[in-house]
Amino acid sequence: MPEDLRNRVDRQPTVAGLSEADLLARIFPRLRMEGGHDSNLLLGPGDDAAIVAAPDGKTVISIDTQVQDQDFRLLWPNGYRTTGFDVGWKAAAQNLSDINAMGAHATSIVVSLTLPVDTPVRWVEDLADGLRAGIRELGAVHCSVAGGDLGRGREISVTAAVLGNLDGGRPVLRSGARPGDILALAGTVGHAAAGLALLESGVPLDSLTPAEQAFVDLQCRPRPPLEAGPAARAAGATAMLDISDGLLRDGKRLATASHVAVALDPARLTQLADLLGPAAARLGADAAPWVLGGGEDHGLLATFPAGVQLPPGFTAIGSVHALGTDEGPGVLIAGRAADTGGWDHFAH
Amino acid sequence: MPEDLRNRVDRQPTVAGLSEADLLARIFPRLRMEGGHDSNLLLGPGDDAAIVAAPDGKTVISIDTQVQDQDFRLLWPNGYRTTGFDVGWKAAAQNLSDINAMGAHATSIVVSLTLPVDTPVRWVEDLADGLRAGIRELGAVHCSVAGGDLGRGREISVTAAVLGNLDGGRPVLRSGARPGDILALAGTVGHAAAGLALLESGVPLDSLTPAEQAFVDLQCRPRPPLEAGPAARAAGATAMLDISDGLLRDGKRLATASHVAVALDPARLTQLADLLGPAAARLGADAAPWVLGGGEDHGLLATFPAGVQLPPGFTAIGSVHALGTDEGPGVLIAGRAADTGGWDHFAH
Predict the structure, then answer these.
(1) Which of B63, B66, B163 to mutate to test the interface with A (most CBs of A within 10 A)?
(2) Which pLDDT belongs to residue B173?
(3) Gap between the Cα atoms of A156 and A119, Å rounded
(4) Looking at chain A, which residue has its C-alpha nearest residue B105?
(5) B48/A257 CB distance under 8 A
(6) Which residues of chain A register pLDDT less than 50?
(7) Does B71 carry a binding-site annotation?
(8) Same domain for B217 and B136
(9) Residue B171 domain-assigned?
(10) Domain containing B147: what range?
(11) Are residue A228 and residue A266 in the same domain, yes or no?
(12) Which residues contact residue B29 at a Cβ distance below 8 angstroms, ignoring those fewer than 6 apart?
């Protein structure tokens, strides 16, 4: 069982005392959406499978897992305890972001929970609340929870699969960037990484500044810009992906798929790093790796034809270039190749 | 790490030496389908999400997880070692069965793998082969693997989400059974439970009879009758579900959803148990609990209007009755209520 939950187990009912049906009966009412969220749900939980509308004859699909001690700690070094709400929210955010990155909007999520027997029931109910709140507050207004699966394990694991709708349009792939395109960013970058560094530090929770607290909040409950993906598609984005592993790694993925080089503007990187300066100073850390390597904000990196007015939420962060002779696809900063180990190339 | 794999680790490369991209590059080529299997896959692995056809404007969706030591043992008491192939096959079978139970056929599967760092690469490749073989050999001819996710954990966990197509038809729900309907079974029941009992026994692997080996094989690589679900829908089935937790529990689910009683024919139960008699005798066990409680064969329990010719694969196993005064929905055997603890009611 999770060591870090043990002190709560003595005081709270755990899932060990409940059948799967009992636990589902606690969860599903918390996942019910109102206000149009259920509009795509043709058959909800309770049968062998759910049925979701796919009005344009196709569905976008992605799947993502969070595992205890890999993707979150139940108890962080700085004293913060990850709540079920955080994990539920993050499951929603990560999955919705993958749909966003295709330029689609989400229609439905299904969730499979693996729980140690000593997990408090309250923690699981809180996860359901976080999942629902994430969908709702991130603005996935056409998305509902269609169903799920529950099982036992030695560690908490949450897998969500998400469906999306392109409204008859074409998806924005990673492979469409062309030389001359503008490289643009939507959402924040490096904030969740700063939050992670604070969680992993000895800085006490109650001494965090409001800005630092916001970074921690973003690590625990990311806020992908869900309007930006469909807006980018409508504006003619040539390529796009979710920044889940950082500007350098995800920039390289886009460059590789499109067979181009993408250049990041050092002045913009410096601006992005400056936002993180005070938190970096507090920790004696460098903000550059957060900006270049931080992915859990789940922003979008997209390319647009030159001259296109960038849609709301996007700002230019660089440009797309043809590959020179003997040059492989990758990320350039100030004219030099920046590989995933290339922090040195970024002096701010 | 899985204790039971340790003796293999010394001799084999593990996933610890590979990046996620490296491992995906090993897996995805093994999942490629030919012969029409990819017909519903509009965009495959490699982007943030996949795109799957939903020709009639809706998609059926389900999700299911297998966790090491909960749903399978890496090393069984009788000496059998669960292969990656077994786990991949079972992930396909369990998920395809949920789509089958709606009367639909599967269009696509996405998979999320959580792997301890010491998992042999070969074991993961074998899992991909089993997933592909399961889809193909079980006859899911319109289904392909659309994508997936990889991560680390302390135990092996495999979650698959599956999409299905109803071809413009209506799904067969659990709730449509009516008094007077025939109750029918497709596929085997209790064979996988007999296999589980053999795996959990001290009976050496090399002493198994061919029949016993077949039970073990069915536990490790279930064979849901994938033609039967759509055939039942076409024949006018009024209710249907996947037998994943046994005739009694799943029969009660159907009865509850439909607000009826379902009566199991004791003579048919005896016939089903007789098939398991020699294995039960070998273990000094009773075949009745296997027949009434065994679910992992993933057969179908369905109801049909009286007079309908049952579609191929189905045989009658009972009947549907109106609830009497003060009678709750449930399963009857020889006129008596058979609850999940009601083995006594079944004398064969």
Answers:
(1) B63
(2) 98
(3) 8
(4) A49
(5) no
(6) 1, 7-9, 340-348
(7) yes
(8) no
(9) no
(10) 3-165
(11) yes
(12) none
Interface contact B151-A108, CB threshold 8 A: no
Q: Which among A46, A49, A101 has CB closest to B60? A: A49
Which DSSP string do the residues of A88-106 spell out, in sequence order? HHHHHHHHHHHHHTTT-EE
Contact B43 A173 (CB under 8 A): yes
The ipTM assigned to this model is: 0.92
Sequence letter at residue A58: K
Q: Measured between beta carbons, which residues in chain B are less than 8 angstroms from residue A164?
A: 49
Low-confidence spans in chain B with pLDDT less than 50: 1, 7-9, 340-348
A188 plus A141 within the same structural domain: no
Confidence at residue A38, expressed as pLDDT on a 0 to 100 scale: 72
d(CA A170, CA B51): 10
Asked if the structure places residue A124 within a domain, the reply is yes
Reading phi first (left if > 0) and then psi (alpha if -120 to 50, else beta), residue A142 is in alpha
Contact A24, A112 (CB under 8 A): no
Cα-based angle B247, B250, B253 (whole degrees, multiple of 5): 140
Same domain, B276 and B315: yes
Residue pair B3/B109 in contact (Cβ under 8 Å)? The answer is no
CA distance A104 to chain B (A): 10
Using CA of residue A96, residue A99, residue A100, residue A104, what is the dihedral sign? Answer: negative
Please tell me which residue of chain A has the smallest CA distance to B97. A48
What pLDDT was estimated at residue B10?
Answer: 54
Distance CA B124, CA B15 (A): 8
- Does B107 lie in the same domain as B42? yes
Q: To the nearest whole angstrom, how far is the Cα of A162 from the nearest Cα of chain B?
A: 9
Known binding residues of A: 48, 62, 64, 71, 98, 148-149, 174, 242, 244-245, 296, 343
**How many Å apart are CA A166 and CA B207, to the nearest integer?**
57
List all residues 6 or more positions away from A303 whose beta carbon is below 8 Å from its beta carbon: A176, A177, A178, A181, A182, A183, A184, A237, A238, A239, A240, A254, A258, A262, A320
Residue B217 burial (C-beta neighbours within 10 Å; 0-12, 13-18, 19+): middle
The alpha-carbon gap from A224 to the nearest alpha carbon of chain B, in Å, equals 14
Q: Chain A residues with CB inside 8 Å of B108's CB? A: 61
Tally of structural domains, chain A: 2
A194 and A330 co-located in one domain: yes
Question: CB–CB of B58 and A69 under 8 A?
Answer: no
> Does B174 fall in a domain?
no
Query: What backbone phi and psi angles, to 5 degrees, belong to B64?
Result: -150, 140
The length of chain B is 348
pLDDT of residue A11: 66
Phi-psi region of B168 (alpha: psi -120 to 50; beta: other; left: phi over 0): left
Contact B108 A174 (CB under 8 A): no
| Coil vs helix vs strand at B316 | strand
CATH for B245: 3.90.650.10
- In this structure, are B222 and B160 located in the same domain? no
- Cα–Cα distance for residue pair A154/A344, rounded to 1 Å: 41
B150/B318 Cα distance (integer angstroms): 45
Q: How far apart are CA B343 and CA B348, in angstroms?
A: 11
Cβ-Cβ contacts under 8 Å, A24 against chain B: none
B70, B110, B242 member nearest A61 (Cβ) = B110
Q: How far apart are CA B341 and CA B348, in angstroms?
A: 16
Do A244 and A149 belong together in one domain? no
Asked whether the beta carbons of residue A155 and residue B152 sit closer than 8 angstroms, the reply is: no
- pLDDT in the model for residue A21: 83
Domain contains B282? yes
User: Using an 8 Å Cβ cutoff, are B104 and B171 in contact?
Assistant: yes
CATH number of the CATH domain containing B16: 3.30.1330.10
Q: Is residue A82 within 8 Å of residue A219, measured between CB atoms? A: no
